[in-house]
């Protein structure tokens, strides 16, 4: 069971997909010789050729639009968007074309297209390189939106995304790209299921991507004060595995949802709204949301203050328990 | 700036034939009769659909009147297995591919978002978001290229759509990737109320050449010229010559749609000047003069048109509404729990009214 | 006090802006001679000239991008997006440029640009012409997102939007364009405030745009059964007037939020999440959300079943009261 | 396809001067010394910033090395009141406009998203979203046009950015609106690891002509040619000739950014071939040969460069961090209640740690 960085785990997932399905093509800006700015496609063009690992012109609408065309022709494109902030030129192709094609054609035309997006902050990047835009896509019917948080999921979820037959927005937390972890062959959890990554009985913490580790750290810290926090990695935002979440919150009666995106209208709102309804009679405190402040992502020097950290998560836990 | 290019024309508005050595075409009675028949049927269908909308049977209709030559001349010059990406006004082309009146009407009646199986006809569903089909056609052509197939791909779009960034991204991408793709622009002079002059300074074919495409300008109301140029260009593309663009000069003789009021922005005299260049009329003159069609032939075509019109009325009114609850299963490959839940609650709620 | 359709009320609002501020320019597809497909700009080009009422090329990114440039030059552009589904090509200019310019420049550069969007369904339109995409923009820091529901607000809110100095996404419910109502000169409510349009003490209904009338009808129907529903027109989604909402829900203890957009990740989620926290101890039932189903907007023949109607609102009211 | 055009060149890599009658320029010792000085200072500043990044003082740096002639030659041919929209690599141009080292570094140190007041310098802040500044510059030029001012607008972008739909929308829009706008493309052969050949099939200046713009190709490493062509084209635009594009052929001698590893995708021999065409070297040869610079002059410039370098190091390290809480007031013209609330809770929370 090798130790792989999240980036390397994605690379091996792509390699597996390219080896086992001749229809799979990888495409994007600088994914060829360079191997992508995060090296996720490192070596793939060398091994599978420029016809299957395609350096594209610099045009995101073109990347997604041509991927749709390739899918119509029977291919399974995996697109890389170089940074989260650069997916917007492709927004129309994604929400009006990719997401809707199946419904528009009454189920006749499926578009198995995966769009990989390095997401979020914490790497000291310049503007437009630390965005968390999952709420836009989670609200868009016809897309699956998934988030990996570590190497094991990165490898398997990417393979599942390529195989699932639906359009998938696949988020990769930048600040975890170089974190190493085991990637093993155990039967993976289905793509659309949440995972309890740390059990506990006092408060349920819901997180995805980069904030999963933040919540695990918070749980460890809380444990020293005798508080048992349950941490759930949502993994799939759309569809959302509400059963797993509700089961937990019904037990704990308290819930804090944590993400990097600004809180206002963020994905945490959907979680809070859904749990507020589903678990109304079990809640002993309101579902609290911890996220980025409602600002455009700040300059790098301020991102530590902007991003939810251990202290802000624990503060929310305290407020929840104090209710 | 470059000096204006003259559009290729073989058959002038007065029905005079002038062959063009650059675009050899064997002009046989059969070819002319066939193209004429397709244009006549297309216009009749279009008129009937317009009438159905006026009667409230369709929510909206976008006429192809005036653009029959551009569509019929081009699509018949392609191979049946050449994949086509239409915009939303290509019923004349669609009929040539065998798409049925019912399949063409269902979307405008509001029963579905699209009417036919694109794979069955090698004809993609209509795209209403302007220019969105252009990068998609480019990607499809990348697939053809990778398959080493000898098919080509054709994509239709309008003068207005050409201003969209996605149109230029496709022109540039197709050129740099060298894919087997034919861009076919019906420049019908208007984008709703916006004239081509507001849309662009230089003609589109010049722009396409600037991107490195092989580009041509053709009289879009001359079905023979459109057919000859499309056939020639398609052959080049099939032979590996890379993508090309054909700009067909034509005119949208109706309003933009049945919701439009063209009187607000264009003159009758302009309309008249284009009526004089009607694509069907000039072919009629030719057929008459050459004696390539006789009274029997005309009668047969009248009969066929009447049947098509009657059939169109019949199938339109007979289109089944379908089940709302069926939509929930069309969003993803498998219906997710929350949609199942919503579907069931909706069905229960609807049932509860009936009690 | 003239009776004006919502469309005419917008027209007179634009006319006032064009008359009183030489910097105001109106721009978009077919806004000139045609007066826009909904006639909102009818006659304006004739009266103010083609330099101030501009028929643009057919390119939404270009419309918003050039509007930003005009604003940098000191103009106040009011852009028309022809239909809700066609704003996406401009998404990058809106969320990465328009929304962020002020923060990116530490407040140095303001962009007073209004983007008018005819929104929502109920008019039997074809695909892409009935979208409700407010959740995308409400989640985007740096934008004001407002929604008019009738003639009076249409006229005044548009004038306020043009004057406010911030980028404003201005939504106009298509199915109300031809509804006539009085437009009077009373001191208008501030742009960012919600309005209680019908007082009541049993349940609070929150709505905006096209669903305000739906909720008023529901309240009328409920009244016949002795139930008093309070109806609040949110008007401004971002910023959200939470004080007005919370004051009401604290009184009624029950709340239903109604919009056309699909519920999942829709704006109702933010409302439910915020009230769930702010009014936790006052809520006698969970905040219920009534909206479109989580499907791409359906074909016209099905929109009546898709859109929240009186029955679905009353059903939610019953469920709330039965809790 | 058209036959390739030769780039305008006045000063060749060996320092030989060949005047071009189409682009008259009075080549005085002062002009040459001035352009040379600006290029030398720009490169020194760029080298210093690179060093600061390597020392961890900057989060990222994008070098302009190799592109000094393209930037200095063009921006100095504009009027000080001509508004400029840069991309993100235009420090050589920015320095010519008087933007200070501190203002140029603050964004890359991570203290702010932009460093200067665009109105004060008539130089917009950097735009990192490729091509987004092009429609904005077009709109600004629409404003100039409406004001009846005799200013023009210039916008810088790269070969890669030209593939973005927004770039084409701007070219087309500017052409059809006839605005006073100069598109200046620094074709430095690479977009990160992607060569121009992947980006486009036909050269960009040909594309621009296709849109109906007056388009020119210039040796971007020849500061005199860039200056002459920009001056001439700017004059035409100012005279109402409508928008134009200049494609400057140059080379990005460093990596794309300090995060890049160009060894992965390009050869040393390619780099060497461009080193031989260095924009500063050839001007040095000219100045020497003509005796337009003497030892004193060289010494003075060395001193000035050293001072600039020292100043750059000093101001960089001295940049104040600023207050996070100040950001909440920069989102809208007035801080909305929920942001005030968030700001206060944040301040309280931070304070609570200190106890
Ligand atoms: C992205 C986008 N913006 C706006 C519209 C609204 N719209 C529909 S058709 C049309 C005019 C299109 O003109 P053209 O491309 O010339 O095609 P034609 O209708 O003349 O066939 C417009 C503006 C749209 N469908 N898509
Ligand atoms: C819309 C968008 N997509 C992708 C990127 C990531 N990116 C930053 S610079 C760059 C290459 C740009 O090349 P070019 O336009 O030639 O400018 P150069 O860096 O060579 O000066 C890329 C792909 C971006 N900034 N914006
Ligand atoms: Mg047209
Ligand atoms: Mg470049």
Automatic annotation (TrEMBL), chains A, C:
Cofactor: thiamine diphosphate
Name of one Pfam family that matches: Transketolase_C
InterPro entries: THDP-binding (IPR029061), Transketo_C/PFOR_II (IPR009014), Transketolase-like_Pyr-bd (IPR005475), Transketolase_C (IPR033248)
Ranges of residues in domain Transketolase-like pyrimidine-binding: 4-179
Gene3D superfamilies (alphabetical): 3.40.50.920, 3.40.50.970
Keywords in alphabetical order: Oxidoreductase
Enzyme Commission code: 1.2.4.4
Protein name (record): 3-methyl-2-oxobutanoate dehydrogenase (2-methylpropanoyl-transferring)
Organism, as annotated: Pseudonocardia ailaonensis
UniProtKB/TrEMBL annotation, chains B, D:
Catalyses which reaction(s): N(6)-[(R)-lipoyl]-L-lysyl-[protein] + 3-methyl-2-oxobutanoate + H(+) = N(6)-[(R)-S(8)-2-methylpropanoyldihydrolipoyl]-L-lysyl-[protein] + CO2
Alphabetical list of InterPro entries matching this protein: Alpha-ketoacid_DH_E1_comp, DH_E1, THDP-binding
Alphabetized UniProt keyword annotations: Oxidoreductase, Pyruvate, Thiamine pyrophosphate
EC number: 1.2.4.4
Span of domain Dehydrogenase E1 component: 36-304
Enzyme class, spelled out: oxidoreductase
Gene3D superfamilies cross-referenced by the UniProt entry: 3.40.50.970
SUPFAM superfamilies referenced in this protein's UniProt entry, alphabetically: Thiamin diphosphate-binding fold (THDP-binding) (SSF52518)
Cofactor needs: thiamine diphosphate
Job description of the protein: The branched-chain alpha-keto dehydrogenase complex catalyzes the overall conversion of alpha-keto acids to acyl-CoA and CO(2). It contains multiple copies of three enzymatic components: branched-chain alpha-keto acid decarboxylase (E1), lipoamide acyltransferase (E2) and lipoamide dehydrogenase (E3).
PANTHER family recorded: 2-OXOISOVALERATE DEHYDROGENASE SUBUNIT ALPHA, MITOCHONDRIAL (PTHR43380:SF1)
Family according to the record: Belongs to the BCKDHA family.
Official protein name in the record: 2-oxoisovalerate dehydrogenase subunit alpha
Organism: Pseudonocardia ailaonensis
Gene (UniProt): pdhA_2
């Amino acid at each position: 069971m090798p130790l792989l960085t999240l980036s390397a785990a994605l690379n091996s997932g792509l390699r597996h997909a390219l080896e086992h399905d001749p229809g799979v093509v990888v495409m994007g800006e600088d994914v060829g010789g360079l191997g992508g700015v995060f090296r996720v496609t490192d070596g793939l063009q060398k091994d599978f050729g420029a016809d299957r690992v395609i350096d594209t012109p610099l045009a995101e609408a073109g990347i997604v639009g041509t991927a749709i065309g390739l899918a119509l022709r029977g291919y399974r494109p995996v697109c890389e968007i170089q940074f989260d902030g650069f997916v917007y030129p492709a927004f129309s192709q994604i929400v009006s074309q990719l997401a809707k094609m199946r419904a528009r054609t009454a189920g006749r035309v499926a578009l198995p297209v995966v769009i990989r997006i390095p997401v979020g902050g914490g790497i000291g990047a310049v503007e437009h390189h630390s965005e968390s835009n999952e709420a836009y896509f989670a609200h868009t019917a016809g897309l699956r939106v998934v988030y990996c948080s570590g190497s094991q999921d990165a490898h398997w979820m990417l393979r599942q995304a390529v195989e699932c037959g639906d359009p998938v927005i696949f988020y990769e937390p930048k600040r975890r790209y170089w974190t190493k972890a085991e990637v093993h062959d155990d039967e993976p959890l289905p793509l659309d299921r949440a995972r309890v990554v740390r059990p506990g009985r006092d408060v349920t913490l819901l997180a995805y991507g980069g904030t999963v580790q933040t919540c695990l750290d918070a749980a460890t810290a809380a444990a020293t004060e005798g508080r048992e926090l349950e941490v759930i990695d949502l993994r799939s935002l759309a569809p959302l595995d509400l059963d797993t979440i509700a089961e937990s919150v019904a037990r704990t009666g308290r819930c804090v949802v944590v993400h990097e995106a600004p809180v206002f209208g963020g994905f945490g709102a959907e979680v809070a709204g859904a749990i507020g309804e589903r678990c109304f009679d079990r809640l002993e405190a309101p579902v609290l949301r911890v996220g980025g402040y409602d600002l455009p992502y700040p300059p790098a020097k301020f991102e530590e203050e902007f991003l939810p950290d251990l202290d802000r998560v624990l503060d929310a836990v305290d407020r929840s328990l104090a209710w | 700036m470059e000096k204006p290019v003259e559009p290729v024309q073989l058959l002038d508005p007065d029905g005079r034939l002038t062959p063009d050595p650059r675009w050899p075409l064997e002009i046989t009675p059969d070819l002319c009769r066939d193209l004429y028949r397709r244009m006549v049927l297309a216009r009749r269908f279009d008129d009937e659909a317009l009438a159905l909308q006026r009667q409230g049977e369709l929510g909206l209709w976008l006429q192809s009147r005036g653009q029959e030559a551009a569509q019929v001349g081009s699509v018949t010059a392609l191979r049946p297995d050449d994949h086509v990406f239409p915009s939303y006004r290509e019923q004349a082309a669609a009929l040539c591919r065998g798409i049925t009146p019912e399949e063409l009407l269902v979307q405008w009646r509001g029963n579905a978002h699209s009417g036919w199986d694109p794979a069955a006809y090698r004809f993609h569903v209509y795209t209403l978001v302007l220019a969105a089909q252009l990068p998609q056609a480019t990607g499809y052509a990348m697939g053809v290229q990778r398959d080493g197939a000898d098919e080509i791909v054709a994509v239709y779009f309008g003068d207005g759509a050409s201003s969209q960034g996605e149109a230029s991204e496709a022109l540039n991408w197709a050129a740099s990737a060298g894919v087997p793709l034919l861009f076919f622009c019906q420049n019908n002079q208007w984008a709703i109320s916006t004239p081509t002059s507001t849309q662009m300074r230089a003609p589109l074919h010049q722009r396409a050449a600037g991107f490195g495409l092989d580009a041509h300008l053709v009289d879009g109301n001359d079905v023979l010229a459109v057919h000859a140029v499309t056939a020639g260009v398609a052959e080049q593309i099939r032979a590996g010559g890379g993508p090309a663009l054909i700009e067909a000069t034509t005119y949208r003789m109706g309003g933009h749609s049945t919701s439009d009021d063209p009187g607000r922005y264009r003159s009758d005299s302009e309309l008249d000047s284009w009526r004089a260049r009607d694509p069907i009329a000039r072919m009629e003159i030719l057929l008459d003069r050459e004696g390539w069609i006789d009274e029997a032939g005309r009668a047969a075509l009248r009969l066929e048109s009447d049947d098509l019109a009657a059939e169109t009325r019949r199938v339109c009114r007979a289109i089944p509404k379908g089940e709302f609850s069926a939509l929930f299963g069309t969003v993803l490959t498998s219906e997710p729990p929350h949609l199942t839940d919503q579907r069931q609650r909706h069905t229960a709620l609807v049932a509860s009214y009936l009690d």
